[in-house]
Structure formats: C-alpha cells, structure tokens
C-alpha cells in the first residue's frame, strides 16, 4: 500500500525490501535516534530489521499496527505508523522518526497529515494520540502544528537508557480534523 503525500513524498507499507534501507538509515543516525527511541540500541543487524518487518506484517494482519516507511524521491528517509490500534474504542497512536539530515523540512508534519486522513477515513478511528518525551521539543512541534490537544504528562511513561522519562500525551479527535 502506498499513500501519496506530495510529488516527492509518499508513505509505503513496510515490507522486506525496506529492511536494508531502514537498517542503513538507522546505522547512519544511531546517535541521533537513540536520544529518544529505546529500540535503537537493540536493532543492531540487518536480521533484526527483517524480523521486525515480519512482526509488522503480523500486527497489520491483526489490525494492531499499520507501519510505513517515509519515501522521499525514492529513498527511505524515516518511519511512521499508526500503532496500538484499539478497534473497540477506535483509538490509535502515531509514532514517527526521521533521519537527522531530513529534519526541519516539514516531512514528518506532511506525513502525519496524510496518515491522519488515513486514520480517520480508512481506519475509521475517532481518536489519534501522539506521545513524545517532555524534553523532545522537535517531536512535540509536530502535534502542536497539527492542532492536537496536549492532554498532560504521563509520568515516567517510558524507559530510556536506564532511566524513566516523562512523556506528553497529545490527542486529536475525528471531528477536530479538517
């Protein structure tokens, strides 16, 4: 599945052909990504990424996750997806990351807009959340630009590098999305 974002940008459902490009992107951005993403230190080999992709297929077939790579001009520049889908309550959470050299260009914000349209239209969700560390200002800027409501702090809500960090929970309801 491919979700077009604009002329240069699209979201492609993660598949096995993305394993090596994702692995290379993570390797070249390991220090940048590990600052906020606990999984980075555990993903050390191409085989780890192939296993991860197999898991995403299982989670997709059970409608728990919809994982995409962000493609710009044919290259993988990041990842985005809707996770922890609760089909009973019509809730999901968006997560994203992007290579350091691609930050500050609106790629994540535009990708989130496309994914939000998909969430509210195709998946028929009513609520979408974005959670990010209280000190991760770049990540916080995305839900704030998109009109999400900052609901509060989840105290020590994530284990990161041998400590627990506080995270903000942002939400957007279907009727709030334009």
Describe the structure.
The protein is of the alpha+beta class. It has five helices and eight strands. It is globular and about 40 Å long. The two termini are 24 Å apart.
Q: Tell me about the biggest sheet?
A: 8 strands, mixed
Walk across the major sheet and give the strand order.
1-2-3-4-5-6-8-7
**End-to-end span in angstroms?**
24 Å
* CATH 2nd-level architecture: 3-Layer(aba) Sandwich
Provide a concise account of the structure shown:
The chain has one domain (2-130): Gcn5-related N-acetyltransferase (GNAT) (Aminopeptidase, 3-Layer(aba) Sandwich), CATH 3.40.630.30.
Task: Draw up the topology in text.
Elements: E1 2-4, E2 9-13, H1 19-28, H2 30-34, H3 46-61, E3 66-72, E4 75-86, E5 91-98, H4 107-121, E6 127-133, H5 137-145, E7 149-160, E8 163-173
Key structural traits:
single chain, 178 residues, alpha+beta, Aminopeptidase, 8-stranded mixed β-sheet, 31% helix, 37% strand
